[in-house]
Amino acid sequence: MASIKYYSKCNCGAITINFDNGASNSMYPKTAKKLGLDLRHYKRYNPTYYCDHCVNHWGIDLCECGSGEEVGKCSCGLNKAHDEFGVKFDSLAAFMKGFYMV
Ligand SMILES: [Zn+2]
Ligand SMILES: [Zn+2]
User: Fold this and answer.
1) Ligand 1 center–CA 14 separation, angstroms
2) Any idea of the CA torsion for 66, 50, 25, 67, to the nearest 10 degrees?
3) What is the pLDDT of residues 13-51, one digit of tens each?
4) Which three-class secondary structure state does DSSP give residue 54?
5) Which residues have CB less than 5 Å away from ligand 2 (the ion)?
6) C or N terminus of the chain, fewer CB within 10 Å?
7) Cα separation of 56 and 68, whole Å?
8) In the structure, what pLDDT confidence band is assigned to residue 64 with cuts at 50, 70 and 90?
9) How far is the C-alpha of 6 from the C-alpha of 15, rounded, in Å?
10) How far apart, in whole angstroms, are the C-alpha atoms of residue 20 and residue 11?
11) How many CB atoms lie within 10 A of CB 54?
């Protein structure tokens, strides 16, 4: 399991946590709370004005389809988050997956 290095807060209200393995996860603060993360233990970086959550609709609590809806509440019916906690998003693998699904 990767450990958290630091986090930052975005203008959109989401927070992004950065791990020592190069992964980063964006999420709603309530999701961090649900995971039992106590952010006071971690270093906080300067606030940002955009993040994966609001720009790409990527996050551990956002639907995989990229709609920006919360997991399980999206109209697409998927129940899978875009990101896994502490796992680096592998854009090449995602690309290949999309490629093979065509
Ligand atoms: Zn944001
Ligand atoms: Zn969806």
Assistant:
1) 5
2) -10
3) 999 999 999 999 999 999 999 999 999 999 999 999 999
4) helix
5) 63, 65, 67, 74, 76, 78
6) C
7) 8
8) very high
9) 11
10) 24
11) 18
> pTM here?
0.85
Percent of the chain's residues with pLDDT above 70: 87
Residues in the chain, total: 102
Q: For residue 70, what are its two tokens?
A: 């919360």
Q: Nearest bound ligand to CA 16?
A: 1
Alpha-carbon gap, residue 3 to 63, rounded angstroms: 24
If one counts every other C-beta atom within 10 angstroms of the C-beta of residue 91, the result is 8
For the record, the structure tokens of 42 come out as 């971690």
- What is d(CA 68, CA 13) in angstroms, rounded to the nearest whole number? 14
